[in-house]
Amino acid sequence: MNRAEKEIDESEKIFRDIEYELKLKNEISHIFLTSSDDKLYGEVLSVLLKALQSKFGTFGYFDEQENLVQPSLTREIWDQCEMDQKDIIFPKNVWFKGIWGRVVRENKSILVNNQFKVPEGHVQVENFLGSPISFHNNVIGVVSLANKNADYTTNDITMLESMVEYISPILYARRERDKLEKKQKESKKQLKIAFDQVSLFKDFLTHDINNIFNNIRSSVELCKIFSSGFKDIDNISEQYNIMNGQINRGVKLISNARKLSQSDELLKQKKSINLCTYLKEAIDFVQKSFQDRELNITVNSRGEKTFVYANEFLLDVFENLLINGILHNMNSIIDIFVNITEVFEDSQIYIKIEFKDNGIGISDKRKGWIFKPDSMESKKGKGMGFGLSLVKKILEFYNGKIWVEDRIKGDNSQGSNFVLIIPIEDEK
């Protein structure tokens, strides 16, 4: 073969190599444009494995916490690897020490043509070729290939580097798009929470303020009747007491609305508190607010001090449960018995508080949904603006629970027993 023919052959080979690389890049572009995230990395890796005649490989990216995420671990690796706790996410303290870490630290391709020492159960690595995926000199991902039948060559490095250089801006754009979509989803979630909270305010405020004004209006009308000739001073005094109680309810409603607007922050603050203090305050409040009703509220406690791990929202929980027991009660004398005991459950000590009333009771069907946010009791529940769904939310934040039973087992017409348990200390 003369020199001219040799040059022609070399030119044809260069052309074929360029054409082959272009074909591979077109395949990769098509995958990035058409494949979902769960398939993309595996499909791109398949192209690279075939092009570089490798049996195993990975194609991964770094997340915001610098974890190396390898969604493309080849099925052969996954099936053959017998290591415990296999995963596709590798924390920095894991990947940084190994061959991946060296590729990232040095920000250059690394070729090794001898057998690796690997952990027990790991797929045996006969040879290795790895290349960082860099964008503006920042490593955003890594491609690793292994177990080629022959040694890896400098031509293989050139080929892989050409591929990752092409992949780099596409991967960066894809990852930025994913981050943006994640932020948008989170923003939508927060917007929905805010919207739901506004709706909650609307439902509670509309219902409770109307209730308060209607009660005051009724009392004013009765005062007009009683005041004619000043014949019934006692009844007038009683109506003024009712109006005063309703004003107290309105003040409390505004306070609760303010608390609700801050609930996400306030709920984060927990400490050891004496529940008896909050229970006494709640009882005092309902007695002042419902002076037109004969209330008989008794408490059986373990003493004047019983500590739980909670916060100031516990007062609102107690008030809400007491108010429910009063409003849903047609008896001339309203009996509410509060029983406080200590229980041991799931290796944790809890304080159990039972609110037993002689009200109209709750049917078995309604017991299943009264704590749901969209239930009538939650959305339009009477009281100070706190529905049972919020009571449940608060108790769950305390790592506690709430449920309702019949006061007399098997007879829901004899009143209800709202049961809550709260841990005495924060769960470790």
Characterization of this structure:
51% of the residues lie in helices and 22% in strands. It is an alpha+beta fold and 428 residues long. Helix 1 packs parallel to helix 6, helix 6 (154-227) packs antiparallel against helix 7 (233-261) and helix 9 (275-289) packs across helix 10 (313-327). It is elongated, with a radius of gyration of 35 Å.
Summarize the structure.
By secondary structure, the chain is of the alpha+beta class. The chain has helices spanning 3-34, 37-51, 75-80, 92-95, 99-106, 154-227, 233-261, 263-266, 275-289, 313-327, 364-367, 376-379, 388-397, and strands at residues 54-62, 68-69, 89-90, 110-112, 128-135, 138-148, 271-274, 294-300, 307-310, 333-345, 348-357, 401-408, 411-423.
Uncertain segments? 82-86, 378-385
Helix content: 40-55%
Radius of gyration: 35 Å
Q: What do we call the CATH homologous superfamily of the largest domain?
A: GAF domain
Identify the strand order in the major beta sheet: 3-2-1-6-5-4
Q: Which percent range describes the beta-strand content?
A: 15-25%
- Give the SSE order as H and E letters: HHEEHEHHEEEHHHEHEEHEEHHHEE
Which shape, going by the Cα principal axes?
Answer: elongated
Named CATH topology of the largest domain: Beta-Lactamase
Ends apart, CA distance between termini: 80 Å
Mean pLDDT reading: 81
In total, how many beta strands? 13
